[in-house]
Amino acid sequence: MMLARTPCAVLAALLLITTTVWGQTIFRSVDALGRVTYSDKPPAATAAPERTATGDVAASDSDTAPMPYLLRQAVSAFPVTLYTGPSCGEACIAARALLVNRGVPFNEMTVSTAADVDALQRITGGTALPFLTVGGQHLRGFSEIDWNQYLNAAGYPASSQLPAGFHTAPPTSLAPAPAQPVQPPPAGDAAPTPPQPLGRIPGNPAGIQF
Q1: Quick one: CA dihedral 9, 10, 11, 16, positive or negative?
Q2: Which residue ranges form the domains of the chain, and what is each CATH number?
Q3: For the chain, which residues score pLDDT lower than 70?
Q4: Among 171, 174, 183, 190, which is most buried by a count of CB atoms within 10 Å?
Q5: What pLDDT sits at residue 50?
Q6: CA separation, residue 17 to residues 21, 39, 40, 128 (Å)
Q7: Per the confidence metrics, is the pTM higher than 0.85?
Q8: Tally of CB atoms within 10 A around 109
């Protein structure tokens, strides 16, 4: 004798068949326009744009990506400047490579002219290169052990934490270029002769000028 199936039993059977046919998981996704889509495949992983405290979307260009907090602290408190020159050869190359490989942001000053040498002497008291400043500390000559110790003490990470695509500023000359002398105007463009003071005339007894 067959028992009559209740509506609840029929609904449960249909749900079981649907689950078996269409799989165990249905994914729901919402696109940028708010449209809802259902699929048996997971949506592609996309990172939402980072927003700043003001709600603006942060720039995605790696050149403008912020540095990690601890690295920014070190750069702010103990900025690094490297002094190099064409005469120091392998020592300057090794000094620059240490900073680049470690991920230390730095400014590089080149010493190649007589004015540069004079400026270096005023800063360091000598002309030895390479020369490094870490905050107020002066390091004469390249020593990997000594330089790393000072960088460690200043809080710079032991390995690079710079954002991908970070570019160090190009080297600049230590002594600024002399200012160009101001050329006098051509004879035909001479400044106009200022008006002569007015004498005492009726209605202007004090000779006031405007």
Answers
A1: positive
A2: 65-173 (3.40.30.10)
A3: 1-64, 179-180, 182, 185-210
A4: 174
A5: 42
A6: 6, 18, 16, 84
A7: no
A8: 21
